[in-house]
Amino acid sequence: MQDKRLTAKLPSEKRDVRARMVREIAGRIVSGAWRSGAALPSESALCAKFGVARSSLREALRILAEKGLIEVRHGFRTRVRAYECWDFLDPVVLGARRETGSMPSSVTQELFEAGAVIELAATALAAQRARVEDCVRLATVLEKMRHSMNRPIRFGWAALEFHRALLQASQNRVLIRMADPIRDLLGYTVPGIDAPAATLQLVYQEHAAILKALRAHDVHGAREAMRVHLSSIGLRYAPHLGSSIPNC
Ligand SMILES: [Zn+2]
Question: What pLDDT was estimated at residue 104?
Answer without folding.
Answer: 86
